[in-house]
Design goal:
Helix content is 73%, strand content 0%. With 309 residues, it is mostly helical. Helix 4 runs antiparallel to helix 10, helix 7 runs antiparallel to helix 10 and helix 8 runs antiparallel to helix 9. The radius of gyration is 27 Å and the shape is globular.
Length: 309
């Protein structure tokens, strides 16, 4: 009986630190969630709050005066709809092409029999740390004839070195027997890649696809550099940036008192702050809708290389 009592006592004593750790862990995670979500929730509240009322401040988690004026101000621009289509096309095409080409390169340099694998790897990794610069890059794009072209969104960034490393690490973790069996059965390298390697690397491909898609969707500087004179190739992010600039210019032209008086007189008024919040929500929604479908693959892909079989 005494032995059992001592065991129960030790069990109770040891459970106290565990409980303290669990409580601290939960509190820390809740704090992390609040810190992470609050900026987005605040932007959501600002985007749906009357801009005239927002000047007073005090908007935190919920709009004080609900309105759709901020969204109407943005979507009244006719160019927004075509720009959204261009953004969707560049995201879709750019993601598919980039991920497929990056995966082919990753498979190639993952093969031990490829004699130039170290040289090719070093050559690509070198570009992660050193680049030619903005002006040489622009001159190269111009010489390639891609100014005012849709393909300037796709071809220059077709290979992502970091993405290539992620996919290569995943491929190197696959059993060698699978690839050897395919070659014994007479499959060539491309057939092996398409039918064996590609289906098994879905977690890594999903992770990389998310990286590429977010980059393509949010990109606007390449539009400014190469396609700013061709409105039919403008993207959503570039059009939103122009709207924000116009709002800043208009805000600087009048005083805050004049803006407040204009809002009180019944006119629709926006401010750079309300426009910025609305832009954030518009740009984030597509990624938020896609992420849940890729989350399980994203987590697995990000931990690739942690444990090798």
């Amino acid at each position: 009986m005494s032995h059992v009592s001592r065991s129960l006592s030790r069990s109770r004593d040891s459970s106290v630190p565990d409980k303290i750790f669990d409580v601290c862990n939960v509190l820390f995670m809740l704090f992390l969630v609040v810190v992470t979500l609050y900026p987005f929730v605040n932007m959501f509240a600002m985007s749906f709050n009357d801009a005239n009322d927002s000047i007073r401040g005090g908007i935190y988690l919920w709009p004080r005066m609900w309105t759709l004026d901020n969204y109407q101000y943005i979507f009244k621009e006719a160019a927004i709809y075509h720009a959204t289509l261009i953004s969707a096309l560049r995201t879709l095409i750019g993601t598919i092409v980039s991920v497929f080409c990056t995966a082919m390169l990753a498979y190639t340099i993952s093969r031990q029999e490829f004699v130039l694998r170290k040289f090719v790897t070093v050559a690509f990794v070198f570009t992660m740390y050193f680049s030619g610069g903005l002006i040489p890059g622009y001159l190269l794009i111009r010489e390639l004839g891609m100014i005012n072209s849709f393909w300037v969104y796709i071809i220059p960034g077709i290979i992502g070195v970091f993405n290539m490393i992620v996919i290569r690490s995943f491929i190197e973790g696959l059993p060698d027997g699978l690839i050897e069996s395919a070659k014994i059965d007479g499959a060539g390298e491309f057939t092996t890649f398409m039918r064996i390697v590609l289906p098994l690397t879905v977690p890594a491909l999903a992770t990389v696809s998310l990286f590429v898609a977010v980059g393509q969707w949010n990109s606007w500087f390449d539009v400014f550099l190469y396609n700013s004179s061709k409105i039919e190739l403008s993207t959503l992010q570039y059009e939103l940036m122009k709207i924000l600039q116009a709002s800043n210019t208009a805000a600087n032209a009048v005083t805050a008192a004049d803006q407040f008086a204009a809002g009180q007189s019944g006119g629709v008024m926006v401010t750079p702050t309300s426009i910025r919040a609305t832009m954030t929500i518009i740009a984030s929604v597509p990624i938020i809708l896609v992420y849940p479908f890729l989350q399980k693959y994203f987590v697995k892909g990000m931990t690739v290389g942690g444990v090798k079989g």
